Amino acid sequence: MKRSTTIGSNIENYYRLHAGVYDRSRWAFLFGRRAIVRLAGEHVRPSRVLEVGCGTGYNLELLQQLFPHAELHGLDLSADMLGIARRRLGDRVRLWQHRYDRPITACHQQPGYDLILASYALSMFNPGWVAAIDAMRQDLAPGGSIAVVDFHDSRSRLFRDWMAMNHVRMEGHLLVHLQQRLQQQALQMRSAYAGLWRYCLYIGNSS
Question: How many other β-carbons are positioned within 10 Å of the β-carbon of residue 115?
Fold first, then answer.
């Protein structure tokens, strides 16, 4: 079995266990989700939006409120998380279940997106984050933006190791690659729990 397939199965199993309590527990860790949606709204008024790793649909609900006339799509690897998202969003959003390792516009014959959001998803794509960022770039419509909020780094080796046990890599690698591959429009670096870790809010485009 390929390593990426094994990791994908591990992630699915992880969220099968956590899906039912995800929204009640992640408020204490996943900071900046509302902020990244607001920040994206300062840079683009999208007609088509894609969220990569949409989970239970929390961010898609925020996006729908901010961009009520936009066409919204989401994808996630976990069927259990998507089941919650469908109950939350109804038929307002189109959802797909699969890995994001190639452009969605090609495999689902969709036009490009004006805004692509990845909220605490890329740090869990190990391996796969490079392919995901490349796919996001290819899925953008001309003039579109990519918005990312995610863990950045931590000075605590024990905390980094604990997060790795929960499939999260936080070594500052995402921001470096985003800045190399995109034209930066906005960047905010924030601290959590008196500096236990840092997370970043990033907006960029491919122009």
Answer: 28
4 exposed, middle or buried (CB, 10 Å; 0-12, 13-18, 19+)?
middle
Distance in angstroms (rounded) separating the CA atoms of residues 140 and 119: 17
Any idea where the domains of the chain sit in the sequence?
A: 3-205
Residues 6+ apart with CB under 8 A from 188: 35, 39, 200, 201, 202
pLDDT digits (tens, 9 = 90+) for 63-108: 999 999 999 999 999 899 999 999 999 998 999 998 999 999 988 8
Pick the CATH number of 3-205 from 1.10.10.60, 3.10.129.10, 3.90.550.10, 3.40.50.150: 3.40.50.150
**Structural contact between residues 101 and 128, judged by C-beta atoms closer than 8 angstroms:** yes
Report residue 144 as tokens: 């579109």
Which pTM does this prediction carry?
Answer: 0.88
How crowded is the C-beta side of 130, counted as CA atoms within 13 Å? 3
Are 168 and 199 in contact, with CB atoms under 8 Å apart? Answer: no
Strand partners, 202: 148, 187
Sign, CA dihedral 9-63-138-173, equals negative
pLDDT at 7: 43
